[in-house]
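Page 47, continued from p. 46.
Same chain as before, 143 aa.
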Amino acid sequence: MTLTLPELAKKMQKIDFCMMITKSEFGAIASRPMSNNGEVDYDGDSYFFSYTDTRKVRELTADPTVSLTFTAPPSLLGKPGIFVAVEGRASLIADKSVFEAHWTKDLDRWFPEGIDTPGIVLIKVHADTIQYWDGEDNGVIRV
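Result:
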């Protein structure tokens, strides 16, 4: 049985961190952990705050193709966790009103002046294809 996007979103609710994979300027693959800010209602779009002067932002500016990988641990009752691979395109947002809509207090740790932190940008990753495996089921969702 293939999951719907809302069903998958429910399984992803508690996953805070993912790995963001981009293409480096030399064509190699670059990976880094990114906070998904936890407890979000996933609709095919993921949002990540960053500073503009970073390697990942330069890579996304040159090639917006991106992959995200999420994983959740097994449940307390031993049911397998879920693995999710997202393929999509990134865009960079510099609009403070959009920052406010995605801001959580936990982000103050990395951005001490909140949405007014100099050099802050929001990376939006829009999924094209989502693959998932949960030990019982697997499938592909095209967004």
